[in-house]
Every structure is written in structure tokens, then in C-alpha cells.
Input
Amino acid sequence: MMYPRMGISDVGVIEFLDSDPRPTFVVEITKTSGPIYANPALRGRPVLRKRVVELSQSPHDPFWAWIAATCSPGAGSDHTFVFEKTCWTRSIVRNEWVVVSSNDVFPLDVTARTSSSHRRVNSNSLLHEAASQGPSTDRDHGWILPEFMPDQESFVHIINTIDWAGSPLGPPPRWPALLQQTFNQVLADSRPIVIYWGEKLTTLYNEAFSKLCGSKHPSLLGKSVEDAWPDFCEKIKLAMSTTASKLRADDEDEWRFFVEKADGSAEEKYLKWSIIPITEKNKLLGFIQPIQDTTSMRLWERRTKMLIDLGDMLVTARDVKSYWTKLIQELEACQPTYDIPLAILYSVEEDAQSPTGKSCRLEGCLGVPDGHPIAPPKLRLYRSDQGLSSSFREALESQGPLLLQTRNGTLPEALLDGLQWRGFRDPCREAVICPIRPTKDEHVLGLLLLGLNPRRPYDNDYRQYISLLNQKLTTTLASTVLLEEEARRGRNIAEQAAYDQAMLKEKLTVQTREAAESVQKFQQIAEFIPVGMCFGNHRGNITFANDAWHRITGAPQVNPLTPEGFLSCVIEEDKPNVQRAYEELQKTLTVTIEFRVRRPADGTYPLQHPIGSSPSFEKAGLDLDPDDGGVRHVLGSLKAERGPDGSINQVLACLTDVTLHRKAAEEAIRKAQQAQNLKRMAELATVGMYDMALDGRLLGANNVFYEMCGLERVDLTQVSVKPFEFCVVDEDLPSLKRTLATLVEEGKPQTAELRLKTQWTETDTSGDQIIAPRWVLATFMPVSNSEGAIETFTGCLSDVSLQKWQFEKERQRKDEAIESKRQQENFIDMTSHEMRNPLSAIVQCADAVIGCLTKAQELIDTHSTAPGNSGVSSTPICGTGGICQEGSQLLKDSIDNAETIIACAQHQKRIVDDILTMSKLDSNLLSITPITVNPIHIAQEAFKMFEVEARRVDIDLTMVVDRSYTELNIEFLDLDPSRLKQVLINLLTNALKFTKNGPTRNVSITMSASKTRPEDRISSVQFIPRATDTVWQGDRPSSPIPEENRIYLMFEVKDTGQGLTEEEMKSLFQRFVQANAKTHVKYGGSGLGLFISRRLTEMQNGAIGVASSPRKGSTFAFYIEAQVPSEEALQEARAAAEAVGHIMRTPNSGAGRASGRGPFTMAKPTKKLLRPQIEGVLLVEDNLINQQITRRDLLTSGCVVEVANHGVEALEKLQQTNRAGGQFPLSLILMDIEMPIQDGLTCTRRIRELEKAGRFKGPRIPIIAVSANARMEQILEAKAAGCDDVLVKPFRIPELIEKMMTVTKQLENAGIK
Output
């Protein structure tokens, strides 16, 4: 019955197998590659499970072959097998799966089965039964190893798996007892033995023989000799027949045999065997063939012969080159070629293109065709991967042969294609590289690549052979190298001997010639050397003397010269010494004497100064030319030679003129005495003197030096002292080191101020003790040796502690004075600032009063003149005409009083400005800041400030612009408008002050311009020379104005006042000085105006002057230097002027209406004055009065106002404006600078940051700084913080409105976002 194919997970038996305690696994019949299921019992025994899995990978294993065998259902055969000493059962399920289970005990029917069933079961009784009971009964038994043969268990297991029933022998139980016994003996034998039994000569063998069968095992078991050994059966049968005839063993010659291995390759073997007959009762039953493996012996003989022949050939080489040739020739001639199927020989040499690299040159190869990539002609090992370069590089570092194999990739198979293999013609799978070096310590000279015998394994014998081959190559190469070196040395010795012989011959010739020349040279040299030489005979006569001898002694040049003639040259006092020297010469043969001779008076032989001799008299600076009376000091050395009879036969004398040396010695003694005197003077000096080595080691010093450094005097030759290292304070050590480094580098004297760790003490005039750090002025002078190298340095330490203490005291006084002055200036600035704040309120309140009174005046005038009944007004404002006139007069008086208040406030402002200017002048803080302006407007502003005051005192005030100004087409110039206006205000103030009481009251302003500097001769005044007593910071501009852009503006202020005398004019323009002592009492003033005016004009590269006569009036004139602006600045100035002009032309503008009462008269502002340009204003002011006044006037001008007390509150208010999504219509911010919590500049910067971050909608918010800080640097700081313009307090409402309209219009025109 056929079942449909099912998955293993659908079979119900799995649950049963999981609970089975026996190890069980399942194999699929169609896929016997491994178990598909293992129950928990098998998984619990990991070793057994691993063994089962390993056997599944070996399909030829008997156990797995038993599992894979299939039987018909119901046959019940082959369902048991013994494995791992355990009986296993096999069950087939639905012809698809095999269930294999382990059993701890054998089944009961195992021993009862008949031989016909051919079951493979295990039994341990066959061998003994065969020995004790004879042939076994019809029982099925398997082979079981004896207990002494446990190592052959696997082989016996294979025997048991053979189907002996199908062989001529039949089942093992039916074998004859003799066969069983013989086979048991063979199994126990360790030698390879084979049994041929019966007529078919059926093959049986032991485990040792199975190793010779290779891949044919175990198929040879049970085969006939023809089937087992088809190639050798005839030879075996012949040996059997011979043995059978003799009925005894017969030895046979050994023969080569190739064992076929499992991978199909053959292995070379050498075997020696014999045939032994097996007989029983004279009946031949079979043969035993014991085999002896002689492979190792035969291979060793073959390889040893090859090594001997190779050594005999290589020792004949005489150089390395021939060595390589003979090596490759001998390898080629070696027979048989089985062990050398491939050979490649390279010589190794230094790479010329790489200092550390090696290159190989091909010397020969065997089995390699020409041009094959495995053997290129030349290899550069360290730059190429060609061929086997990487392996060759590794072999260079190896001390022994290097094995290459195809299986691990070290021998690339791609390089083996196309090789002509030698020997068996089989391709090699392994090779070795033998590095050839003469000794172990030397470099490799050659590399030999040998292919290994493909039919022999690389075993220990093969390794030993390769090692011996490598040693043979090493020793023979060493012999060759030594032989080559000896031959080279022999050639060198021969060449050197020939060269030495030639040189000796040449030297002999030269010495012979030199000997002849020496005599001649001696005579010539003797004439030139400065030493006097002479020879005397036994009688004392001088037979030879050179010119130097005559020059030194002054003796006449006669030959021979008698002793008396020589003694005549010697000074009388030294003649006895000369005679005693001659007597001493008779005894000692050598005498040295010093004597004096007198030089000729005619100067025939002048004294010769040594040139370039040692010692150097020039360097010593010795004066060696004093008058000595013509006496020379001579040092003489005499040597006598005795003859054979012992008498003196010749005397050699050498005389040296030591006159200069004597004088040098005397001079040196004198200088030494001077040095001693200087040393005593140094000890008495008041400064510390020292001598020191470059490493800081003290060589010598006086007592003052030790006292200053706080050191104890020690012996400097015994103790090393480095005083600067621990006597100088740590902070000054880097400076000291830099000074000494400069001294060594430049070689020039150096100085340095240092502090010592010792204290300086002194008592002042009051008896108080002064203790201060000790300061010294150290000098360092280099001391050089004769070669000019600096070896030491010397110097002195001068105590400057008193000067340093005095300097420190002066510095403290100076700092205190500067601090006092700074505090004074801060006080003045603060006072000026605090005075400006109320002035602004005063001016604004006075303006408001004037506006209100003016409006009331207009109402009275209107109603008093209106037509009505009987000419009387219909309104109750004026009861009678007298009352109206009286009220009108009161209003006029009140207006005059308010204008007087404004005039006083303006006067007070000028005084504050003068004080502030003087403060900055004294501190050198006043600077000139040019901007682009219209000079006429600046002059008009100053002019308008005095119109009301001039009208009040009945002064005719006029302004004239000269033609020279218009001819230059001046529209705008770069200058400082505040400084120009300040000078004009000072001059106009003086002019009105001294003119208001005169009979004629005229004051005029004349404005002119010029391209050249004005001079006295073309001016109506005499200019005051520039001040030279004080240098002002503003006197020196950062960069001069180019001449083509330079314009000189000149202003003249002329009055008809009382005038000045010559004496009074001399005292003008000085600080706190007026024309005379009565000026202040009569006219008031501080005496600062003209002084400040002079400084301001000079700071602008100008000058100021005066011309005056008593009772005729005065003329004050000044000029300043201005610059024509750039085109960009000119365009910006025109845009600003256009904006201001637009505002002034606006209808109903209070700023543009002309008033007959001048700028001090302000009408009541009308509504909508600032609209539509300005709708809402945020006023940031901490002063409550200023808040109220400014807010009231701005509300009156037609805009809404929001007030903040400080910067933080202003930022909060901004969040409520339309710029941040609020309701308040913000158009402009008036920002005070000096405020608590957060000042105006910080607030302005924060607003600009928020604008950049996009926190506010709309265009840029106009911000005008309103502050009492009037300095230009403060104004520039405000603009740098982000303010669009600055209005200085005190200011008037029309000025504020004009500034607001101007800034707004400028931002609109510029389109600033």
C-alpha cells in the first residue's frame, strides 16, 4: 500500500521518539547526507551526536553504509549493527525514513542466527573457538579483537562489514581452523602481510598491509589475486609456483610500487617481499606474503648519491658566478630526476637604485620554458610582486628552507601552468625555497626554488634531505667564496708587492736626490734662518758662520775668525762667562750660555722684530723699542764632537737673539705688577667686581661683590660657586639669561638692572631706617681668548638701590597727583552734567512761558482792536482801555523776563562748556572730530543765538559772507562744527559784552575762505604765534589734509566797544587772564574764553589774532583748516540738508515760522505739528521734571507720548507698541544716556539686536540720544551704539522738533531697514 508523501513534522512517532530514553535519530532515505532529527536522549550526549554527524560526512564508513542500505519490507535483515561497542537497530518507515536507535544490550537472537542470513553481528568467541573447538558450527559470528589489540578495532570493524558470503571463502564461521588461526596471527602482526587462500587465491591482509593498498582498501579483501593485483598477478603466481615446488619460502627482489591515494594521486613505494606456503598434511592450502617497506632506505640512497655528486661538482667552482653555473648543471645531470621535477636558481645582489633593497638575477632553471612568468630574468624584490617575489622576500629573512604549497596559496597555481615537469611528469603541489648564504651571519647570495616530488609526501625524511641539501649548498658556497677571496687576496698581494718594489725603487732614487739637495738646502737655509750658526775647529777658530750669526754678534766676516776676534764683540763684563763656557765644553760636550754683545754704532745690523712669531708681541701690546744703548742679549748653545783620540775636533754653536724676549719678559713682569695693583684697587672699590665663566661659575670677585650677594668668601679653586643662580630674585632670572645670551651672541658689553635677594638699608635725615630691595646695575664685558672665542666675562655691580627708591617715591607721588587730577576732572564732568539737566528744564519752561504769554498778547491785541459799540470791545477781557494797556504791558514785561531767563541759561551753558573744555584741555582729552557740514549754517546758528540779546541792548548785529567764499564754490566742508561754534560764541559774547554800554553799538561777523594760509600782512589783525610751552594731543592730526583739498576758513568779529591798549592786548589769550583788573568787576567773565578759543583754533591747524585801539573798538579774527569732503560724504550732506529744508518749509511748522522776537520767542505749538511723519514717541528719561516738560510739549505738538524711566522699562514698553504687535503707534524714541538700572546706550544696543533678529516689524526705529554728555567722543559713542543722532542738553522744543523731523526724513530717504 502506497502512502502519500508527508512531512516529518506530521508523523505521530515524533512524540514517541522524544520520550524514548535510548539515543535515536532519523535519516531521510533519499537524502542520507545527515540526520534530520535527533531525540533528547541523543542531544543529551553531545560526544556521541558529534560522532554520528562526522560519520554522515563519510559515505564509505561501514556504519553509515549500513544505515543507507535499503531492504525490502518484511525481510527483517540487516536491522542491527555494532557501533561504539553498542548495538544499534534500524527501522524503515514508509520507505522514506530510517529510524536508528541505540541499545545497551544485544538482542537475544543475535547469537542464534544462521550463516545463511549473512547478518553482520558482533561475537567474541570465533578466535578461541577456532583454537579450541576446531571448525565452528553453522553460527554467524564476526571478528572481535583480543584485549591486547584495541588499536585495530576500526580495521576489524571493516573486516566484519565485508560480505564474505559472496567470496570464495564463505562466511567466517565456515572458514577452516587453520585459516582462522593464520588470519588471527596476521592481524596481530605489525608487518604488512597478505594471505592468498584456496584455489582462487583469495586475498586477506592485516591493517599494516592496508596502508599499502591506498584507495583500493577494503575492496581488495575477499578478491582473487587476479582481481586484486591485475598488474602484478603473474609475477606473484610465478613466485608462488616456485615456492610451491620447494615447499619453503623464497625471497624476491624488491620492486617499486605506486600506491593510489584517496585523491587519485600515486605515492612512490619500494617494497621487498617473499612468498611462504601454507600447508597442512603436505597439502598446499595457500600462501603468506610478508612485505618489507624499503622506501625510506632506497630514497635515502638515491638522495645521498645526489648530494655527494652535487658536492663533488660544486667544490670545483672557483668563483660565485661559476658556482651558479655548476649548480644548475649538476641539478640537471642528476639521475633519476624524480626528486628535482622543477628548479629555479637566482643570485641575490644589492639594488643599485635602492640602498636597502635587493634584486635577483636568474642564473638558470630546469623545467621552465623561456619567458615563463614564474622565472623572470630579473626581480627587484622590494618594488615588485612579479613571480614569487613575496616568497623570495620572506626567504631572505629565513634561516632555513621555506615551504610553498598550492593548498594555502603560497605557491600560486596560475604560475604552474605551462611548466615542463621533470621526473614523473606530474605537476608539483609543493616547493621549497632554499636561501643560500656562506655563513649564518652573512647575507643571502642565492635563492634556489626546488619543486618537491609529487609522488612522495613532504615528511621528516624529505625535510632532512632538503636541510642537508641546503647545508651542502651553504658549505660549498662558503668554500667558493673563501677560495675566491683567497684568489683575490693573492692577486692583491702580488700587485701590492710589485707596487711596493716600484715604490721602494722610486723612494731610493728620491732619497738619493734629496740627500744631494739637503746639503745644498742646508747651506741656503742657514743663510736665511734667524738663528746664528757656526762651526769651529779644535783650535777655536770659526770656519763657517751664516749671515744671522754675523748679524747677531756683529763680528766681521773673515774666514777663519779667531777666538780673540769673536771675544772682541762680547761686552767686557760677560767675557769671563764665555771663557768658562769653553772650558765647561771640554768636559760635558754641551753648554748653554747667555751673554751680551754690543751692536755696531753705524746700524749695520739693526734689531729684527719677529713677525708672526710666538709669543705675539703685537697682540701683547708691548713697547719694545726703548733706548738700550745698542746692547743685544744672546742665548748660545754649543755642542762639541770628539775625534777618535778623544780630543775635540769640531764645535757647533747656535746663537739666538733674545733681546726682544728679555724685554718682553721684563714688560710682562711690569704688567703683572700693575695687575696686582689693580687687584688691590678692586678690593678697595665701592662697586662689586667679578670674573665669571660662561656657565655662571665665579672665578674671582672683590669683597663688595660678596657683601652685595650675601655670600661668604671661599676658595674658588676648591668650591664651585654660581652666585647669580641663588642671589638674583626669580623674577629677574629670565632677563639675566637673555642678557648673557646676547653677550655671547654679539660679543659686546651688556648691562642689566637686577634685584638681589639681600636687602638695602639706609637711614634718612630724620633718623628713620629705610629698608628696600637691593637694586644693582650689572655690567657684563666679554673676555675672549687668542682665537677670539668668548671664554669668560667680567663686570661690576653698582648699587642703585637709593636711586630706585627715590624713583619709586617719585612715581608714587606722580600716581597720586594723576589720581587726584582724574578725580578732579571727574568731579568737573559730573558737575557739568548735573548743571545741564536743570538748564534744559529752565530753557523749555521759559519757552513754554513765552509761548503762552505771546498767545495771550495776541488775544488782547486782537480784541482791543476789534470793532464794536462806541469802539469798546464786546468781550469782558478788557474793562477799560487803561486796563488793557496795563495788561498788555505786563505781558510784554513777562515775555522780556522769560527771555532774560533763557539768556541767563544760555550764558550758564557757555560757562559749563568752557569748564568742560578746560578740563579736557588739561587732560589732553580734547580731540577734533570733523564731519561734513555747511559752514554758513554753523555761523548762522551762532549768529541767531545772540540776536535777541543784541536787540535787547540795542546793538546792530550783522553777518556778511565775503566774495572769496562764494568764488571757491564751497557748499560743504569737513570740520568740527562744535569747536568752530564754540570759538564764534566766545568772540560774540565778548563783543556784545564790551559794546552794550558804548555810544555806537555795532557788531559784525565777516566770513571768508582761502586756499592758502592767511598771513598778517593781508589780514586786518596780527595772529598770535602757536603755543610752544605745552604739547596738545589735538595738535597732531592723524593724517595731513592733501593740499588740493585744503580750505582755510576765516572769521572776523568786529565791534565798536571801548577797545584795548597795547599792554592789554599782550595779556589776552592766556588762562584766567583778562584785559585788566577792572574787567571782571565791570563786565564779569572767567578769563577762559579767549584762552580756549586760541587752543581750539590751534588744534584745527589755525590761529587767532586781534587788532584794537582804545575807544575805537576791536577786531578779533581766526582761521581754521578744513577739507573738501569726498563725493560720498557730499551726497549724504546734501540729503540731510534737503530733509531739513523740507521740514522748514512745512506749513504750520513752529520751527519754520518767523517770529519778530527771535529764537527766544516761541509761539504756542499747534496741533498736528509732527504728523504725519511722527505719530507716537517713546520718551526714555529718568528725570521727572524733564519727563513732564518734554511730554507736555510733545503732546502739544500733536503726537502721543509713552514714558519709560530706564532702559529695562523701555524694552518692556516696546513690546506694547505696534512694532511688536501692540497698540501704541511708535514712530521715534528719545533716549536719555545716563539712567539707573540700565543706561541708554545698553538699551539702544539691545533694541538694534532685536531688530536684527526680526523681533520688531516695520523699518528701522529712529532713536535720538538726549543727554547732558556734550563731549564729541560721547556723541560718537552714542552713534556707535545705534543712535541715529544726538541732541545735547539744554535744548529748546523747536530744536528737538527739528531734530526729530530731520532724523525721520533722513531714514525715509535712505530707506534703512
About this structure: The mean pLDDT is 79. The CA atoms of residues 593 and 1282 lie 105 Å apart. The radius of gyration is 67 Å.
